[in-house]
Amino acid sequence: MGVIHPNGRMGPMSQSTQTATEPQPTDFPLLTHDKLRYADTDKQGHVNNAVYSTFYETGRVEFIEKAHEASTNPNAEFVIAKITVEYLRETHWPGTVEIGSRVKRIGNTSLVVEQCIFCEGVLRSRAESVIVQIDTSTRKPAPFDDGMRAYLRTLMPADGEDASPGADR
Q1: In degrees rounded to 5, what are phi and psi of residue 86?
Q2: Most buried among 7, 80, 96, 136, using CB within 10 Å?
Q3: Residues 138-145: contacts with CB within 8 Å, 24+ apart?
Q4: Cβ neighbours, 10 Å, residue 167
């Protein structure tokens, strides 16, 4: 894994390189843990990129289950409409990862979720997902009820602003 340098060439990124503006585990209202498995590694010796999607799912499932408990709509389900993943630093077995999750924006039927993966306190990957609530009988987008919306607000940054610097409004 590497980084594209200003000269356009790909090069290694230091495991310890982390800027002060990067998210930290304490920035997330929900932290989930997952164990790194030997089978998660690829022939380069680092955790395979496909495994990151599984880690992000682990984080999403935890807060989605709680969102369903807060809702009065028994026909509500969530589907992923879009997910973007950035791979920032290699992660190696053995160990554990922390998956931080927070809600960046809440719409009428969808929300934007920001997630980060940390290993040994260092940011390894960042993802942003658009998740749509649908009605299970019609399979069409369904508005959030008040209970779900209230719970989702608890996963937003305390100041009520977008979770990421420079986020689109």
Answers
A1: -110, 130
A2: 80
A3: 141/109, 141/110, 142/73, 142/75, 142/76, 142/109, 143/108, 143/109, 144/71, 144/106, 144/108, 144/109, 145/71, 145/72, 145/73, 145/76
A4: 13
Cβ(124)–Cβ(88) below 8 Å: yes
* Residue recorded with tokens 């719970």: 151
Tens-place pLDDT, residues 72-89: 999 999 999 999 999 999
| Structure tokens given for 124 | 């390894």
Q: At what angle do helices 49-70 and 146-153 cross, to 10 degrees?
A: 130
pLDDT in tens, 148-168: 999 999 999 876 544 443 333
Q: Cis omega (within 30 of 0) on the bond before 94?
A: yes
For 15, counting Cβ atoms within 10 Å of its Cβ (0-12 exposed, 13-18 middle, 19+ buried), the class is middle
Q: What's the pTM?
A: 0.82
